[in-house]
From TrEMBL:
Matching Pfam families: Acyl-CoA_dh_1 (PF00441), Acyl-CoA_dh_M (PF02770), Acyl-CoA_dh_N (PF02771)
Catalytic reaction annotation: a 2,3-saturated acyl-CoA + A = a 2,3-dehydroacyl-CoA + AH2
Species of origin: Streptomyces gilvosporeus
Record lineage: Bacteria, Bacillati, Actinomycetota, Actinomycetes, Kitasatosporales
This protein's name: Acyl-CoA dehydrogenase
Domain Acyl-CoA dehydrogenase/oxidase N-terminal: 60-165
Length: 639
């Protein structure tokens, strides 16, 4: 059997590649960045920003069109049953302009704001998660967004009108042996005259089966006149040498048009390169700064659906003489779904509006929204299955066959599971956000813990760090959260904001203490860093919920009810936060590492005895050696 084509890289090289792709500067303020530094800058998010009148009119008009389309033209059960989105449904989405929601009107798009784009995705995703995923992959990370941010005018003129009307796009980064470690990227783009020649295999290409245009990340070898490095290209999906070798099937999102794509001697004009050579990962990460908001938007939509089903089912279902929701064990789950849905929508709307106004840097806010939305969305779907009991485990088709309402609870749970992996797994998001959260510390003291730094540079770093911490540490002792009348304009929610301010300073003190204690080993303390980020996510959600509730109260839209939901959410969140603070220092992380070592060295193989492994044969990672395809293409272009 042929060994997989694997690019070997050291841990240090992998870290350097990831670090080089980061945005290094903070040119705009960031609420979340300040939060992790112990500075609770409520003024950055309150009063809640609001969209322009024209944006609202245009957005509401399209939402009405999309709702009618989804209600009359989308057969979610058929998509689940046939495991694909019908051609006529895709054609209909093109006709109503859904492919061009985020594309400027001058290129034939709808020019929706991030707020209304996300609301449209929540709506479409509730009708069919596969459609939500297709629209998101096309516009959030596919061709339109990278070109909007980094494309030349010629590229925008050539590709954006097509993307707005008819051309579905896909984003190709992952490879069989490359996930969150892009330093291992093996697909190459070799310069040849006015072209680049692409060779390699891409895995999990969402939309790749039906795409017309591709954003491909490939490694350009350094040579005379070529800086080289990971580079982004726009590639025509029907180019000679491209083969969609497999349409992948998954636990959920059965209609997802996701495949394996092989490139063999594919010629791409140099004019189709996005940005300079070596800028591919930076382009990808910058694109995701707002692109990540699409996923929590759809999670918020699922929360709304879960709340609707929980309410209706609890009204119909009685046990021991009363509604099941009147029993505390079930009622607590309903309350969790209601409060969390309110908070998650608050996080998405606030982050989206800040993205539209472009006053703040929202890279951390968007990452927190993705992390928090995917985790809480999964929990809400899981709790709904529990509320529904055996009917939650039964398929909608089976329920209908025996005469009951076809509620696809188990399908939603399956569909939601991928969100904890899509666009950065929870574990990777913890590390990404943690890196941004400690950026201020590394900027002034990073050289002190870098083993390759000279003694002279360490001395200069020590002087900078001393000045920074002399100013910063005293700010963490006291703050507005200790004054009883602070934030009083928020009424009964003021106490939660005072708590958030105090917790923000405690979070910053904990981070500083950990850096002082572990120094260079801090990056290995992933359990600790994950809890730090989770505390920050809860505090951001609390803040967003309170600001949204007060905004709704001031505008006269369900203000009293919004305050009730925000209060309930904050009380629930505070319990989770206190548990996380306790687990920062009291946990089993060290013991867990020892157990893992024993598992890996085979000490516990006796524990695996007594079962049968139903897995099939084959390598753990498929062979991705470049070369011509031996399979027929399963690409399905939409007429």
């Amino acid at each position: 059997m042929t060994a997989p084509s694997i690019r070997k890289v050291s841990e240090r090289e992998a870290r350097q590649v990831a670090e080089a792709a980061r945005e290094q500067d903070w040119r705009k303020p960031s609420f979340a960045k300040e939060l992790f530094l112990g500075r609770f800058r409520l003024d950055l998010i309150h009063p809640h920003p609001t969209p322009a009148v024209d944006d609202v009119r245009r957005g509401e008009k399209f939402l009405a069109t999309l709702r009618t389309f989804c209600e009359t033209k989308v057969d979610s059960a058929r998509i689940e049953r046939e495991a694909k989105i019908p051609d006529e449904t895709l054609q209909g989405l093109k006709e109503i302009g859904a492919l061009g929601m985020k594309i400027d009107t001058k290129y034939g798009g709808l020019g929706l704001t991030q707020v209304y784009y996300n609301r449209a995705l929540a709506l479409a995703g509730s009708a069919s998660p596969a459609i939500g995923a297709l629209l998101s992959a096309h516009q959030s990370i596919g061709v339109p967004q990278p070109l909007k941010l980094f494309g030349t005018q010629e590229q925008k003129d050539a590709f954006l009108p097509r993307c707005a009307r008819s051309a579905i796009s896909a984003f190709l980064l992952t490879e069989p042996d490359v996930g969150s470690d892009p330093a291992r990227l093996a697909t190459t783009a070799v310069p040849d005259g006015k072209d680049y020649v692409l060779d390699g295999v891409k895995l999990w290409t969402t939309n790749g089966v039906v795409a017309d245009l591709l954003v491909v990340m490939a490694r350009v070898p350094a040579s005379e006149g070529h800086k080289g490095g990971i580079t982004a290209f726009v590639v025509e999906a029907d180019s000679p040498g491209i083969t969609v070798e497999n349409r992948n099937a998954f636990m959920g999102l059965r209609g997802l048009e996701n495949g394996v794509t092989r490139f063999h001697q594919v010629r791409v004009p140099a004019a189709h390169r996005i940005g300079p050579e070596g800028a591919g990962l930076k382009i990808a990460l910058t694109t995701l700064n707002t692109g990540r908001l699409s996923l929590p938007a759809m999670c918020a939509g699922v929360g709304k659906w879960c709340l609707k089903i929980a309410r209706e089912w609890s009204t119909a279902r009685e046990q021991w003489g009363k509604s099941i929701a009147k029993h505390e064990a079930v009622g607590g789950k309903v309350a969790f779904i209601a409060a969390t849905t309110f908070a998650l929508e608050a996080v998405v709307d606030l982050s989206s509006q800040m993205a539209d106004e472009s006053r703040n840097d929202i890279r951390i806010e968007a990452a927190l929204a993705k992390l928090y939305g995917s985790e809480m969305g999964w929990r809400m779907a899981d709790e709904l299955v529990q509320i529904r009991g055996g009917r939650g485990f039964e398929t909608a088709e089976s329920l209908a066959a025996r005469g009951e309402r076809a509620v696809p609870t188990e399908q939603v749970l399956r569909d939601m599971r991928i969100n904890r992996i899509f666009e950065g797994s929870t574990e990777i998001m913890h590390l990404l956000i943690a890196r941004e959260a400690v950026d201020a510390h590394l900027s002034v003291a990073g050289a002190l813990i870098d083993p390759d730094t000279s003694l002279a540079d360490k001395g200069r770093a020590a002087a900078r760090a001393g000045g920074f911490y002399a100013r910063w540490l005293p700010q963490l002792i006291t703050g507005p959260g200790q004054l009883p009348r602070t934030y009083q304009e928020f009424g009964e929610l003021a106490g939660h904001l005072r708590y958030a301010e105090r917790a923000s300073r405690k979070l910053a003190r904990s981070t500083f203490y950990a850096m002082s204690r572990w120094q260079g080993r801090m990056e290995t303390k992933q359990g600790f860093l994950g809890r730090i980020v989770d505390i920050g996510a809860e505090l951001f959600a609390m803040s967003a919920a309170c600001v949204r509730a007060e905004h709704l109260r001031m505008s006269g839209e369900h203000g009293r009810e919004a305050h009730q939901l925000a209060d309930a959410f904050c009380r629930q969140a505070r319990l989770r936060i206190e548990e996380l603070f306790g687990r920062l220092w009291t946990n089993t992380d060290d013991l867990d590492r020892k157990i893992v070592s024993r598992v890996l060295d085979g000490s516990y193989t006796w524990l695996e005895e007594g079962v049968i492994d139903p897995s099939g044969d084959g390598p753990w990672i498929a062979d991705a050696t470049p070369g011509p395809s031996t399979k027929d293409s399963v690409r399905r272009p939409i007429p």
